[in-house]
Design a protein that fits this description.
globular; 450 residues
Length: 450
């Protein structure tokens, strides 16, 4: 059968249209996940904080607000959030406020009405509040999950009983912090308290938390251990700083129990530790050294640094061969660290001076990771990279193309495009900065979009 000229033209036109549509479909924008940001806006009922949410575009990294968000965080001053059970549930830690209504809670004037609020994550990213749970200690401020997602842990700055401190950590211990542990129900998202099987209270009853040395600053799961960064000098108000040593618990992946495996902390030779992060088999301690004290009592500005460690038996730390790594000298107050998904680059978020209008020295330091002949970190050309003022966190999107920081001082989210070869963080092809309704405190990424 032979086609007439008109028929041939019509067929070629249809084929061309099909090719065009096929090409267009290859570049069609779609969401690769959701970004959630907690914030301290108190316009919600009872002075609660909020959770904002954005869809992440796979082509540009641009963000679009999720319908029906922000929502109330379920309590005042949310500071941490964790996604679990296949990203079907979001857990938000609300610090609460003290008796005077201030967020500047201290050991003497502790936070009240602290809680963990659980949200169900809908297929379109919408959050629906479920239940509320409570820690066993006072002034909770950090929350993490184990690598399996079966257990959730909260670090309380102050344990409720000094007597239990001595029973767990040795005679003469008069004060301590604690870790409250929960089992996560993978079906309902509910939390069930884990009772301490190693230590009982002074009256012989079961202890409902795991004591850690006084003045905790941060904690992390690392190679089968839970390791707490604590300070020798009391840091009584949030955000807690001044970490000087680490203390390990052995972690059971079967029942979530934490077992003390040594009765003393390991000194790190620092005085201003701000955070501890375990990533890609290395434990990093971030150290903010604002001044060094000279032998004659004068002070010299000192550079912040990153301390990389391998984790050995019983949680003992051994410095990596390359030793301590300097932070970018133009930045200050490192508070979080991200190893990108391929293990080639490290990015350190520097909060700077967390005071609006101050010379913040905020930004992101970037490093190459060299594993051979020895573990080394070297600066990426062009760093430091921009962020908003006083970034609180840094996350990588599910496609490993973009990173986002959530910023306290200018109430924004800042997005950057990751160069997969050079490691540089570049402006997004669209808008790089997105406004929030108030100061940001933490961020998490959800890769589940249906």
């Amino acid at each position: 059968m032979k086609f007439k000229k008109f028929g041939k033209a019509l067929l070629l036109s249809a084929l061309s249209a099909g090719i065009v549509l096929s090409v267009a479909s290859c570049v069609q924008s779609y969401s690769v996940g959701y970004l959630y940001v907690t914030g301290t806006v108190t316009a919600q009922p009872a002075g609660n904080g909020i959770i904002s949410g954005f869809q992440i575009d796979h082509n540009t990294g641009s963000l679009a607000p999720i319908d029906l968000l922000p929502v109330s965080s379920g309590g005042a001053n949310p500071v941490r959030a964790v996604l679990l059970t296949g990203s079907r549930f979001l857990y938000v830690l609300n610090r609460g406020v003290n008796a005077s209504g201030s967020a500047d809670c201290t050991t003497a004037n502790p936070c009240q009405n602290s809680n963990i609020t659980v949200f169900a994550v809908g297929g379109n990213g919408v959050l629906t509040p479920q239940e509320t749970f409570f820690t066993q200690g006072i002034n909770p401020f950090r929350m993490i999950a184990d690598s399996s997602g079966n257990f959730l842990y909260v670090l309380d700055h102050d344990a409720p009983s000094s007597a239990a401190c001595a029973l767990a950590l040795g005679a003469g211990t008069t004060a301590c912090g604690d870790i409250t542990a929960f089992t996560v129900n993978q079906t309902t998202g509910r939390l069930q308290l884990i009772v301490n099987a190693q230590v009982t209270a002074a009256n012989g009853s079961a202890l409902t938390y795991f004591p850690v040395p006084a003045n905790p600053v941060d904690f992390a799961e690392a190679a089968g251990n839970f390791i707490t960064l604590s300070g020798g000098t009391p840091a009584t108000s949030y955000p807690y700083t001044g970490g000087t040593s680490v203390f390990p618990y052995t972690f059971s992946p079967i029942n979530g129990q934490l077992t003390i495996n040594q009765n003393s902390s390991q000194p790190l030779g620092i005085t201003q530790g701000t955070a501890i992060v375990y990533a890609a088999g290395v434990l990093y301690v971030l150290d903010n050294e604002p001044v060094a004290i000279n032998f004659n009592g004068t002070q010299t500005p000192a550079q912040s640094q990153i301390l990389p460690f391998s984790v050995g038996a019983n949680g003992a730390l051994a410095a990596e061969t390359g030793g301590n790594v300097p932070d970018d000298p133009t930045l200050a107050n490192p508070i979080y660290l991200l190893v990108e998904s391929k293990g080639k680059f490290i990015y350190v978020v520097n909060q700077g001076n967390n005071v609006a209008g101050a010379n913040a020295a905020s930004g992101i330091a970037g490093y190459f990771i060299t594993l051979t002949p020895a573990y080394q970190l070297s600066f990426i050309p062009g760093e430091p990279f921009g962020s908003g003022s006083a970034p609180q966190c840094l996350v990588e999107d599910p496609t490993d193309q973009y990173v986002y920081s959530a910023d306290f001082n200018d109430s924004s989210v800042t997005g950057r495009l990751v160069d997969p070869n050079a490691g540089s963080l570049n402006n997004l092809r669209s808008t790089s900065t997105y406004a929030l309704q108030g100061p940001a405190t933490w961020c998490v990424v959800d890769g589940r979009t249906s």
